[in-house]
Every structure is written in structure tokens, then in C-alpha cells.
Amino acid sequence: MAAEQDPEGRAAARPLLTDLYQVTMALGYWRAGRASAPAEFELFFRQSPFGGAFALAAGLRDCVRFLRAFRLLDADVQFLASVLPPDTDPAFFEHLRALDCSGVTVRALPEGSLAFPGVPLLQVSGPLLVVQLLETPLLCLVSYASLIATNAARLRLIAGPEKRLLEMGLRRAQGPDGGLTASTYSYLGGFDGSSNVLAGQLRGVPVVGTLAHSFVTSFSGKEVPPDPMLAPAAGQGPRVDLTPRVEAWLERVCAQEIRALFRTTGAQFQAPWLESVPIAVSNNIDEEELARLSQQGSEVNVIGIGTSVVTCPRQPSLGCVYKLVSVGGQPRMKLTEDPEKQTLPGSKAAFRLLGSDGSPLLDLLQLAEEPAPQAGQELRVWPRGAQEACTVRPARVEPLLRLWVQQGQLCEPLPSLAESRAFAQRSLSQLSPAHRRLEPPAGYQVALSEKLRALVQRLSAGAPL
Amino acid sequence: MAAEQDPEGRAAARPLLTDLYQVTMALGYWRAGRASAPAEFELFFRQSPFGGAFALAAGLRDCVRFLRAFRLLDADVQFLASVLPPDTDPAFFEHLRALDCSGVTVRALPEGSLAFPGVPLLQVSGPLLVVQLLETPLLCLVSYASLIATNAARLRLIAGPEKRLLEMGLRRAQGPDGGLTASTYSYLGGFDGSSNVLAGQLRGVPVVGTLAHSFVTSFSGKEVPPDPMLAPAAGQGPRVDLTPRVEAWLERVCAQEIRALFRTTGAQFQAPWLESVPIAVSNNIDEEELARLSQQGSEVNVIGIGTSVVTCPRQPSLGCVYKLVSVGGQPRMKLTEDPEKQTLPGSKAAFRLLGSDGSPLLDLLQLAEEPAPQAGQELRVWPRGAQEACTVRPARVEPLLRLWVQQGQLCEPLPSLAESRAFAQRSLSQLSPAHRRLEPPAGYQVALSEKLRALVQRLSAGAPL
């Protein structure tokens, strides 16, 4: 898979946007003759963000762009040579020079999917050395995108479907690309647009805006507006002089409830459109303030949100991890005294089991070789963290992970951003009210099949494979 | 000033990384015939971050790179035409096509300077239309860089000068560029290095790393390490077999205090270097945990910090603003009911007044045309927020703002990142203990000259200029 022109202007990230230890480990694998051993990693989070029950998966599109463009340039390899031990075998650098992602396969939740703790957002398989090197950039591309999409989805749930929500946080973003990512994925999560022009140009996000205080203060009152005489909207009738009209109305408007004034004025002048002139607000709006603005009877139509959507102050990082689950066809797991940090071994499949009302009951993880669960059949599963198995009879079963990239080749076109946005809203609407509720939500169960649980038990006990 | 090759790989930001309203306002200025009116903006913050008394100024280097490369491409202008009203005069787009920063002048605090509320980090002057368009990208480039540098400086103050502090938060960063910015400016703020390879390649940050759990779990115990026989460090004596040696020591090491074991072992085997083998720790380290690890007697040498340095969870945004202070040679200010949001009008100079012990007493803002304050002479100044003037006799006076870019030309080479890092540490060491203390710090005073205060009073009263 050769590097290709990036239709969105530049690759989502560069290969050296990675932690040095990935390169150290790559050298270790290479020296041990294991660079090409087939390996599989899973990318997931351990806890849903913001105290909610769910997250939205996002960032896949950027990951695919990154993988397709992945090549180390000569200058990159030279830089790595300058930071690795001076006696490193030059053949290792030749190996790096020839690397690409033509051996890499990616299964993933579609963008905008509901995601739950421990269920892989991405499964990445391929030669051990390459898929190890991908860890940091993939985490970097998925974690923040999913965090922002989830944050935006929560704000949308609070605001309800009618309010227009605009992301205006570019100046508060953590770095220029943080701003671009935030604008893109807050749209995916349910916002209506962004002030960020680059997000419009590169990602097709609708762009919006008003004006800054500096525009007002730049006029001292002596400058004449360019077109003080306004023509009537209908094209007929006399032109009116804007300036005295503004001056006359300013004092009255500032003293009254705005919407009521619009209604009165609209009725008085037979201008019914005036009743529905949108009222927009912004200024440090967070979840609590948004809830107030969205209460029944609120006349606010448009809400601009900056810092609290872009920087996610309640939880500024999703904390995704990327864990090895198999190498050379053998399952691997991380054993630790902290049960939350223990990983689930083996190449897996994931299914969402739905109830008769169409809402998800639980997500099931099982070994890849097991047959898919069948709708209408009773299953015995092991909810994570529980000591007992339980039974469930799903009315419907949805496979969660789709094959997007096989041996470096894109298998099907990625949905557009707008399609993923619509999918996210559909997914959220299917969630039961108890799981959708922001606080305190009912916990959503993720369960293991009997076979996967048996494998965990066997490996935890240190038994040979 | 033509676009030029960017030595660091790409411009720090693109011109369309801006809020749409900047372009709307640009159109407004252009239609009013005011595009070229000389204007000046100041970029500053209103409150020091994290509850401390100070911030570190950072991001100037990226701003200069951005200004020097600033040109709207044809595709950019076409995109803007697609989002502005369809009847926009095509001559406006011709104006945009010809824009560059050849008329822009920038005064700024050197990178790594101590910065205080209301004192400009940047003063940007030039044609109104252009300097308005620069608002969002400059805020985006300065705010997060300064926030990260300040956060890193606080962590350095807590850790003391001896510990090696490493930034390892790339995977937790808010977008790929967020990661690059964080690695660069945490180094400027006092960290010793970063795991981020790209920050090493593009910015010269020292790169460091260990290994991940996946490396450990990728070996099942059956694979033979590549070089199981180790030669002695001194080059003489028998080679030892690594594997049984590791197995024998593992159980004993995990059960004891590590440094004591190093000492005992070093003494027993006449290997004194073993006593000083660095001990490194990481895992969710924040200010409180760092304080514990840095207590006297701690044997930890190296501390890796990720999420809490990179995402600044205590305050994920500095909240810088960019305000118009003069246009057409006339001072402008924003009047508001919120006194904290009121701006200081006019083109200004800023000075740091130092006491006889060399520590800063207060920062003084005055009108650009006033003579600089003199060391040893008593001054009457108005501390912000105070109702009374006070007098101060500085032992030394330092001008704060330096001319970096004049009419688009770089006036002097920017210091290297390492030089700015050293400057930041020197600046911090000169701060009095009361101001350097993290919580609760003594507030640092910023004061106005009599003339500047009189101008504020006059404009607040609505008097003609």
C-alpha cells in the first residue's frame, strides 16, 4: 500500500508522532526475529467518560487515512538512528525504511456507534513490529475524537432535538489540530455546526458565526455604515435609513424580554417572520447551564458552546488503551493485581444483544471461532465483574465489528461525516432511557461467552495454553 | 513577506484555522473602506491559571512561523466564497487573495517570560482587516502553549531541580497536534524530555522511553532472547546467562525496597554503579502525587507524567483573549458591566519593576508615548482593582515587550527552545517565594500609570477622545 495523496489536505498524523518506546520495542522484536509474527491488538476504554453509561466511537476515518499514508521517510529513519543506540544493526533501519501497512487488517465499530467499556473500538492485526508501532498514533486519533463525540452527544441529549448547537471553541482548543478534531467530532456527536472554517473546508462541517466585540469597538460612531439606506425585503416600498431606526429601537429592546418584543413588533407591523427570528446565546455554557437554557418554554434557539465542548473539562481524556491479545496465533493477556487493568485474551468477536423493544440489552464478547449467537435462543453469559453467569434471550443480535481494512486494502467506502452523525443519533435513540440518562445512569453490561471466560480463567491460573 | 519553506515541516497553523466571524468582520471592514485602517490588538489572559500567581508566556515561535507563512490559497478563497453571502463583491475576494502579513508588527514577551493578568503576551498591529483575521489562530497558538508551559513549571517547582521529569502523555493529548504542542512546551516549562518522537525530530526535545506491557506479554517464555549471554560491562571476565539470573533475582527484588536492594547488591558484588541506577515511576501522577514522590528521602529519580501534564485537568484552557486597543491612532476599549471584562485602551508599554533583592515587585502598564520609569525614582501607580494609588521606588526596571516582527520582517532571531527553557527557569527563580508558592500564592500586582488610568476614566465616562 503506497503512500497516497491525502484528499483532506494532509495525513491525520505522521508515523513519528509516537512514543519512543514503540521504536525500542520494534528493535527488540526485530532482534528476536519476531518482527513478522502475526499479532493482534485491541483498542478500548475501561470506563465510560463523564460518569455516563456510554461513549460514541469516533476517529476511524482518521485512523484509516493514517494507515494508508504510513511510510517512514528517509529523514524519519535518520532521526530514529540518532536516538537509538549507536551500535544498532543498520539492517534494522533498512527494515524500517521498507515498512508500510500492507499487512495490516482493521476491524472496528463504525463511527458514531455506541461503545461500552472493554468492547474493542478497533482490532488491529498484522506483523507484530508494525502493529506495535501503530499504538500511539491510533490512540491519539481515537481517544480524543471519541471523547469529543461523546461530550457533544451528551450536550445534544440535554438540549433536546430542536435547539441549534454550535461549537465555537477553536481558540480554547489544545493546539491547532485539537481544534480541528473538536469541530469535526462535535458535529459527529450531534452539534449542528462550528465556527471553525478549516473544519468546513476539510471536513464539510457547516460553518457559522456572528461577530466579535472588536468589530463593535472598531467603530467610534463617526464612521458611516456602508449602506445606511435599506431596501425593503419584498423589493417594493420606500427605503429606510438604518441608523436612526437602530437608535430608536435600541433603548426599547434592551429593556424588555426579547422574544415578546419580536412578537409585539411582528404583529404591529404585519411582519410575522419577526416572531421567529432566532435568538442565540453563548458565554461559558456547560451541561448545567445548557439544561437551564433548554427548559420548557425557553425562547433561545441557538446555543454556542466553546471551552466546555472542546476541552471536556469534566474529563479531558478518555484513557483508551491498546493491548496485545494474541501473537503467533496464541492468546495473550496482561495479568495484574488490579482487576480493572486485566485484559481479555484472544482474537474476539463482539455482538450487541437487543431486546424485543429494539434497545440494547448487553454487549457480548466471545472468541472469534465461536458461532454467532442466534436471536431467540437462550444464552448463558458471564457479565464482567460478576461472580455468576446469567442467561439472556435476545430478540435480535447485531455483530459490532466490521472489516474496514484487509491486508492494507480498504474493503468498503467509509461513511461520510454526515452519515456517521445521523447513525450516532439513531444509535442513541435506540438506547433505553435508563442507559441514556446522564446521571446517574444504569450501568450497561458487557459479558463474556463461556468459552472466553474459561480461557481467562485458564490463563489467570498460569496454565499452559 | 512571501510564504516560505517551513523549517519545522509545516506551518504552525493554516489561515482558515479561524472562526467564520473573523471573515464576516473582514468583509464588514472592507465594505466600510476600513480594511487598511491602522489597528492594534493585545493578546492577554485575565486570570493566572491553576489558582497560581503566574503563567509562563509561550507560543511566540509558532505565531511567528504562522505569520511568515500566512497566505490564503486559491482553494481557501474559493471556500470562503462558498460560505459568504452569494452577492458578496468579487473584489473582496481579490483583496483576500493578495493578503499577507507584510504590514504586521508584533511586540511580545519573550518565550518563557513570567506573565501576569492583563499584561499583553502579544501586541499585534497592522491593517485592521489582517490583524482581525489573525485573532483565532494566534489565540489557538498562544493559549495552550502557555497553559502547558505553566503547568510544567508548576510540576517542576513541586519536584525540585533534581528529579528528571518526563512528559509521556501523547496518547492522552487532545488531537495529534495537541500532543506535539504539549511535548514542546512542557519541555520549555521545565521538563527534561518527552516520549514523543516527533517533538524530538521537529523541535529538538530530548526523547526518552522504556517499554510497554505488550512487549512483555508478547513473549510467552518459550522464545529465546536474542543475546542470552551477557558480556561483563568492563569487557573482561566470564559471560553470564541472563535468563536464570533474572529468574533468581525476580522473586527477591519484588519483595524488597528497591534502592536498599541496589545498595546491598552493589556492595556485595563490588558494583558501586548499581547504587545509583535510576528508579523511574509513572501512572496517573498529578501535583499531589508528585509532591509525595518528591519528599525528602525519596529514592525516585525519574518521574513520567502523562494525562495531568498534557490535558491540564485542573484547568484545560487558559482563556486568553485578543482585544482591540486602538484603531486609526485612536484608543478603543470594551465597556461592560463586568469590570473583569473591561479592557485597557490605547497602545501601551509594559515594564517590570524589581526590588533591591532582584525579585519583581509589580508590572506597570502605561501609554506607549510616556517616558519609561527610572530605577531609583518614586512612581505613583494605580494597582488594578484598587481604589487608591500607591507609590513604588523600583531598584531596577525591565521593559517587558520586545519588537520581534516589524512590518512583516523578523527583527532578531528567536531564541531556541532550550534557551527559552533556561530563561523560564531563571525567571521563576527570581520570583519571590510568596509569588512562586503554588497555593495559596500572594497575588502579583499589575498597575496602571496615572496617564493610562486617566484615559480609562475618560473613556468609561463616555467623554469624547
From TrEMBL, chains A, B:
Entry's localization field: Cytoplasm, Cytosol
Top-level taxon in the UniProt lineage: Eukaryota
Name of the protein this chain belongs to: Nicotinate phosphoribosyltransferase
Organism of provenance: Myotis myotis (Greater mouse-eared bat)
Glycosyltransferase listed as a keyword: yes
Pathway noted in the entry: Cofactor biosynthesis; NAD(+) biosynthesis; nicotinate D-ribonucleotide from nicotinate: step 1/1
Catalytic activity: 5-phospho-alpha-D-ribose 1-diphosphate + nicotinate + ATP + H2O = nicotinate beta-D-ribonucleotide + ADP + phosphate + diphosphate
Enzyme class: ligase
